[in-house]
Amino acid sequence: MITNRELFFRHMGLPSKNPLGIEIDHASGIYIYDNSGKEYLDLVSGVAVSNLGHRHPKVIEAIHQQLEKYMHLMVYGEYIQSPQVKLAKLLVDNLPQNLDAVYFVNSGSEANEGAIKLAKRYTGRTEIVAFKNAYHGGTHGALSVLGNETLKYAFRPLLPDIRFLNFNRFEDLSQITERTSCVIAESIQAEAGIILPENNFLTALRKRCDETGALLILDDIQMGFGRTGKLFSFENYNFTPDILTLAKGMGGGMPIGAFISSKEIMESLTSKPELGHITTFGGHPVCCAAALANLLVILDEKLAEGADKKGKHYKEILLQNDKIQNIRQIGLMLGIDLENNELASKLANIFVKNGLITDRFLFRPNAFRIAPPLIIKEDEIEKSINRILESLDQL
To answer: Strands across the sheet with 31-34, in order?
Structure first.
C-alpha cells in the first residue's frame, strides 16, 4: 500500500528540495506530534501564524458555531455576513482613526497586492519604493517589491518603476519623491533576521511620505497580533501607516488576510474602474469567525503585554551560550545568530532530532528564529530552553 510519504513526494508541488518531511498526526497548544507519537515543541508558531497555539478551544468553538450557520455564500462584498462585519469592527476599534475600512482577502501576499493597487489608484502615481532584504510574498506583484534578487531573478520581468532603499539609512529617504505612489515597509524586517529600526527611522520615513504625498504601507503580516509586545508592531515606534496589511497570526490557524486604510482611500477601489480589487473567497465566514475569536483571546488575555517578558527571558539565557553570536529580540520574536551558515544548517537538523521546530531566515542564513505561541507557559519556556541548549552542546 502506498504511504502518505510516497504520495507527498510524488504528487505534491513542493517549494524546496529538502522539506522537513515530518508526518503529522495531531497538534495541540505549543506541541506537534508525528505519526509515531514523537512530540515536537513548536517554537515558530507555523511562522507567526499560531499565536494562540494549535487548536485553541475558543477558535475551534467559533468555527463549529459558524459551520452550523453557513460557509461560502457569494463573492466577497455582496452579502452582509456577521463574522465579517464583527471582525472589521473589532479591528477598527483597536486601530488609529485613519484605519477604519477593512478589505478582507485570503493571504498576506494578496493583502500586499491589494494595498499596492490601492495606493497606485488613489495617488495616480506609478513608482513604488521598497526596502532591500524585505519579504512581502510570492505572487508577481509582491515578488516585485521583495528586496532580494535570489528569489526573483527567474521570474523577471516583474512590475516596473520600483526603487529599493536600505533600511535604517536616513540618506536614502530623499529618493522618495512626488513620483512615488507608496512606500512598502515592515516595522521590523523579519526575514532579514529581525532587524529593528534605529534612531526613529520609521518616524523619519513617515515624515518623508507626508512631505511627498506618498502613501506608507506597513506590512505587519509576520509581526502583527501581539507578536512584538503590542497588538500591531507600528505601535512600538510612534507612527501610523496609511495602509496596514495583515495575515498569518490573524486567523488563529485559519487562512485570512486584510488590507486596512481610511474609508476615503479605500473607496478608490469602487470606481474608475468598479471592482478595483475583487476576491471570491476573501473574508470567508468560517475564517472570519476564527479570526474574531483569535483577536478576542489576544485582547482579553492580554497576550501581547506578556510577550516581551517571555522573549527577554529567552534572550537572557541563550546569550550566555558561547556558540550564539548575537540575538535581536522584540516581544516574543528572536533572531539568533550563529558563527556561520554551516553551523546553522547543522543545528536545524539537531533541533528536529531533539523535538524542536525552529526556522531559518530567508535572508540571513547564519541565523534561526524563536517565535513560540504567545500562550507558552513558564515551564514550557524552560523546557524549550533546555532543549535548545542541549542541541547547541551537540554542535
So the answer is: 24-28, 31-34, 39-42, 356-357
Of 136, 112, 94, whose CA–CA distance to 294 is shortest? 94
Specify the number of domains making up the chain: 2
One domain for residues 123 and 135: yes
CA separation for the pair 84, 102 (Å, rounded) = 10
Classify the phi-psi angles of 367: left when phi > 0, otherwise alpha if psi is within -120 to 50, otherwise beta: beta
| C-alpha span between 68 and 251 (Å, rounded) | 19
Instruction: Quote the CA–CA distance of 329 and 319 in Å, as a whole number.
Output: 11
pLDDT at 255: 98
24-28: which pairs have CB atoms within 8 A and are 24 or more residues apart?
A: 27/54, 27/55, 28/53, 28/54, 28/55
Q: What is the pLDDT of residues 186-229, one digit of tens each?
A: 999 999 999 999 999 999 999 999 999 999 999 999 999 999 99
Q: What is the pLDDT of residue 43?
A: 98
Q: Of 300, 323, 344, which residue constitutes the final position of a domain?
A: 300
pLDDT at 17 over 90: no
Q: Residue 11: its pLDDT value, please?
A: 94
Asked if residue 245 and residue 124 are part of one domain, the reply reads yes
Same domain, residue pair 271 and 209: yes
- Structural domain including 219 reads 58-300
pLDDT range class, residue 272, cuts 50, 70, 90: confident
Domain boundary (281, 300, 319) is at 300
Contacts of 296 (CB under 8 A, 6+ apart): 58, 90
205 and 215 belong to one structural domain: yes
Q: Answer yes or no: do 265 and 330 share one domain.
A: no
- How buried is 212 (Cβ within 10 angstroms: 0-12 exposed, 13-18 middle, 19+ buried)? middle
